[in-house]
Here is the input.
Amino acid sequence: MKKFINAKPNRTATILLGLLPFALLILVYMIGSDARLAINPSDKLLPSFSHMGESMMRMAFEPSRRTGDYLFWQDTLSSLTRLGAGVLIAACIGLLIGTLTGSLPYISASFSPLLTVISLVPPLALLPILFIVVGLGEVSKIALIAIGITPFIARDIQGRTKEIPSEQLVKAQTLGASTSQILIRVILPQIMPKLIDAVRLSLGAGWLFLIAAEAIASTDGLGYRIFLVRRYLSMDVILPYVAWITLLAFLVDYLLRKANQRLFPWNAEVNS
Amino acid sequence: MSLQKTQSMIQAKNIGKRYGNDVILERVNVNVEEGEFITLVGASGCGKSTFLKMILGIETATDGELLLDGKTIPDEPGSDRGIVFQQYSVFPHMTVLENVIAAKGFQKSSITGYLFGKERKVAKAEASDMLEQVGLGHALGRYPHELSGGMKQRLAIAQALICKPRILLLDEPFGALDPGIRADMHALVLDLWRKHKLTVFMVTHDLKEGFYLGSRLWVFDKVRHDPHSPNAYGASITYDLPVGQTSAPLYEEIDNRIRPIPDISIDAQSATPENLS
Here is the structure.
């Protein structure tokens, strides 16, 4: 008998062991739901899976009686658009600030302290300011996401830029490279995969700001919907929505990881 | 003693380097003529790399002056002084061929250094030729992480040479390589030194390399010692020997003085002069 610390499950066992907690959770939920529904058939707290299925069919495949939209898809589209726009803006600004402060001492001297201070401001505390300044429309929500994650991306990229071995920068200079050539040909290409990694890490915060902004002021979106139906204790809609948001978050992360491997084959060793 | 009459390519006049109270180098006086191949040996921390970095332009002397063609050496790296470091000398995001073409592109004074059309074609042909010379003709499309340590150093050398530097600086370039590969690299460097009429400075911690490679050997060591304050005095060049006219007892003596870190990868068979061609 091997010591437990040395015992490794084979592949099938690994998959089964991984699925086990999910199965248990679902089982516990079903038992709890059945028990509550047996006492009170109109219980709203733990709806049955069939009930959730019906509600979602209605949300996804029947046009809303009030607006004529397919609410589920409309919510998904709006939320993903906001998240995508916010993250894209943050990535661009973060990349610019991060590479420049990470590589040019003069830029670093003038912007690093500011960046440190800004990154300490809690973004949600800025939401009222955004609502006042740019109104309750799309801009405020996208701006919140962008403001919320730009400092993180910028600081991460700054660090990654500094990690590039100085030997490479010296080497480039001995080959005759100018400052702009070093930035564009040596630093930027090596930072791109790091940028995608930084975006992946910041997406969790991105979803947080998205849902927060939608909960407070919006007329559609995944976050808006779950906060709206909360008033009616509609767990049959909230729970599937949360599961859907989780799945979307997983898919976005997965696609970015795959894109990173595909776009930067020279980074393969780092990725694996 | 520096000789003013015929101006040497590199003149070090009473050079010293201090970090605060720690003296690294002191009273270094040497002249180097065009075309010499100098190996710098010494114990670790003896300032041999510091001296190399002064020529490279990323360190400056705190005392004395270091002249290149009679003028103070520039305080930043330039394309007249090529460098090969022990590692991180190549760009990991470019293929072997791109690494060398990029070096050609950097010679052009444009914002990005990208080459297009005919210019790129010429650069590509030149780069392929140079890679053929260093023995990488079969690996043009590979990325650096797919190369062995020796191949990476060959690439780094090709990159440096495509820019036609006058001076080639090698900072323990073969320190991380296997003995057999090291011997191949010695042959390559000697061959390129003659073919391209370079002036070479090579830092190594392997005394054997220093004794048999190139044309001149410098041993960096401390002349004065204060046991109570080990950093009070810096190292200087204690031996300045023409290669090929040295005796075994002298080798022993220097070996004992600088006490190089025992390196299990170095064995006598692989680094004897016979193998160096």
Notes: Chain B has a mean pLDDT of 84. The longest strand of chain B covers residues 22-32. Residues 252 and 259 of chain B are 10 Å apart (CA to CA). Residues 117-133 of chain B form the longest helix (17 residues).
